[in-house]
């Protein structure tokens, strides 16, 4: 096992004091034996402390370098004469063991005895496999380990540390708790991955737009720092399930996952990985974008079988004392029995540690005892004495008093520098704390604490190697914290409040700057009145202060004799409420001006008293109309230009309303910009509604929290099911059959499940509100922000949201649903016409007030600027910034005003604002003092990222600059990167801030056309000469920005570049934007679609028609298909027209249309389209009763796919043909088709099978009679479907039937079930009888949750089942969700009545 971070901190101190305490650091490093290249890469200075950090950081990358360093320390006479010398020798011995293991042929992923026997890792074969996949596959960026508490999730970190030493990565761990905050997590991670000599930049909001990007920027900074490092970091977040449900750390985790996903393709070898221990998918879904980049594992508690297997392997490979070979099998069995009995007995003993920790400690003790036996010594007796000291007569050695006292000194500190930790009564630190606490603490990283100086005189009289930090380390501080279990035991063991107060007071200099739990605890223990800088009374505290208070209370309540503490649960509820309001408060932390009329409209909509008489009159009239018509209140949509203040308006309304109406009302604010909310998954929104309402109704909190977990579990299953649907759509031969069948079924099931869940939530709210019968009750206000992505014609999400609204409104009539996004769009699912508030510019008075609040002190200038700039909030912020940069000189400010274009009040507002904002931005650029950097900043707008190399190769010539060396390019880049107009974009890369670039790009295209086009052309040349998906994406981006023909650009397109071009359509002309959207997905406004090339319009329209058909809106799909005829021969709309005609009941016309389209596709060389049309034609022919025609179409499709070398396309067509033969009695070709299908499956390698798991499962299930081995292979390679409940039902029914028909199989089946989930619990005294169908289903669901269902199914295949039920059950489980039922087409409409179209959530 590698050394721990605390041990490396100790080594760093030794290196500083004994090796590098010299003006010439190069000589001693060279004497250690390091290569010149290694030494030359070290950033050495004249400061011993900084040099020690640099040397240790570099040496940790390889075991050989670590040993060179420890060798030098062990042979240092000054160190070896001290107690620390012995510790150094022990560390060196551990590294020698690591070196031997590293050189051995053993598989490090299968290691079970770690750290020379002092640690073990038992079983967890599934985890080992997942870790192997995670290490080897660069596309996997997040590892999630779930499981019940005390199941060994956190113990996973031990194996990860072991693998890091041998696989070349460095894991760093942050342990989470209920008081953790996003800011603290980001700081901890930054301290680990950043250069310790670099000051850590605190979180600061952006200067121009809303403050919410702050956390996003900080998280991206962590990932950039880690990516730029010379080693790969694994960022491990442990105990995720201890987080409070309202903690902002959930968003931090989601943003970390997204940031790593975005950086992964840039530097695969160093981009960090994210490991989440204890992260349950029923708590929060990770971002939708990374769903295919996760590795999932479920931990389970070790049982006797696991321990027996471990000991069997260990004893068989370990020679007994005095022997050279392992013992015989009968001796191994006896040793296993002895060890197992002792370990289980020790694990059942009482203690503060968890069961898993007691088991592992006992196993480690067993290994240690066996390895230390002398020849002839009684293993059982020795083991009994070691593991059960009370019975054996021994006992653990007492803790040294000095170690206990240092624990007490640190137990009330959230972080401390061990070199400065003092015992009560000590005048100065001795530095001994590091030696005493090295194994009791977690390292928090090395930080640059804002220039805090060391304690005066610290370490002056201490011996070398134990002293506190020397003067040159004032800027570098090592931070440790006691491990949580040790902290809690120490707190409980304190003598009382006096001892706690003495420990805190002795280390007051270690308190973090500003408020913190230490100061809160000190104030309570000392009984001193609060000082002005201390937190106010509980009800007035914010999120950070309440988190500190809660942490202090949780510490102090464990100390004997401490009284007068606030109730921890009360503080917890206050903290949850504060966190609930925090996103709203962030939005309005700047000055809010104007919007009185819009606020009145919101109050009237919700039913709260309005501020103005006119508004109250309107409100009364509106209410009267509602009463008379008995119509439900529709949703309200707040829409307007980007940056106009939609989110701020909603936040202001909610906060003011909650303040002005003390009785309150239930509310929810959900922003789809949050990574834990997926706009594609409405169930995540319902979960967020339940979580926020649980905070407001604590008496019903447990019920609502359980519903939130149910919603998240549903979202997870729907995500997996949607991925299966998407996979079936990838192939032309599965899209028109299995794909569209699955898509329609998925939408129906998902929408029904959404409405079921939201009704449950509404029912709880009705009970929680406790409104008397006949009374209206308080309004339920749900505000949904950032909904733009779902607002397009045909959107499945919009359809499901209408269903959710209808269900909520029915259950809670006073629902008030506010949506921030685009203007309302028409949708077939729309039940009522939404109300709308169009948010325009601020009025003149509010604009002046906003300018004044943002620093424009001259009222006349503010008035003039408001007149010229208008009322757009972002324009006003830019104007204020330009005025502040101009200074207070009247002539300069006057010039600023006169330089702005006069507003054209009746011109298209967006263009007008663009001109104004552009002029203001130009003024801001003029304040860049270096003219060369100013030119680079202006021309660099054309690039999405700027690097020193791009400055030389792309920007220099258009800017008229001569850059003759890499050093000059780096100097210019360094100056540019320090401008607040840019932000980091990766190692040695920056980009213009997105809010400013969006303003300036179009204006720069018009005002500096020649320069921008020159930059674009050079960028095309630069990126075209480079390999990789990111370079190809940038090349295509710049070609489209130059308005090259989309058809020529399409020839440069390669698969895998889509993710790099998301959102790039905003920078394009309509034609280019349509091309990009057609290839990467998404939707465009109709005015942009009108300018699209025909091919691009068809691609976008095809997605919309697919969505409409999936929702059952056939007539709306037909209306879209009637547009922009004729289509191109290869248009994806041709099969959709056939599908639509069939669903309308025009079967004959659909078949004729399909036949004609097949011929056109054949002539145009569109093989994939031809395949899809043939499969669709076959499906329709079978539905019309013509099986022969269907078989001919399918046979032709198989031949075409085979000639093209498309294995999976051919397999899809063969599967359809096999199922057709199965449904056609007496088909003579059935056996031959099945044989061809089975043979094709056998010939594909495992790596290929994993590319199309849904199709492979369906084929394996189909050919199970011809090739039973295909089932086992498929289970091993791709496993069972995870999201389909049909899997569990099929297995349960087959096991039940097999057990009923063959009672002799029941014992074997029971062992298989128990092996997957452990011994099932039953009431005391109840015998173990056969399981009922319901309990069988429960067992199988538990096996699926634990990740053991695939193994269970494979074991079923080897049971001697004469009936074949088990084989059939496994096959049915594999094929679940792809049954192949032929979709029914509508009968031809009779003259009397046409088939009604489905409309809305109530449609059948």
UniProtKB/TrEMBL annotation:
Pfam families under this entry?
A: AAA_16 (PF13191)
Tell me the superkingdom of the source: Bacteria
Orc1-like AAA ATPase domain span: 624-797
**By its UniProt entry, which InterPro entries does this protein fall under?**
AAA_16, P-loop_NTPase
Bias (Low complexity): 449-470
For region Disordered, the annotated ranges are 446-470, 509-537, 1318-1342, 1377-1404
Question: What name goes with this protein?
Answer: Orc1-like AAA ATPase domain-containing protein
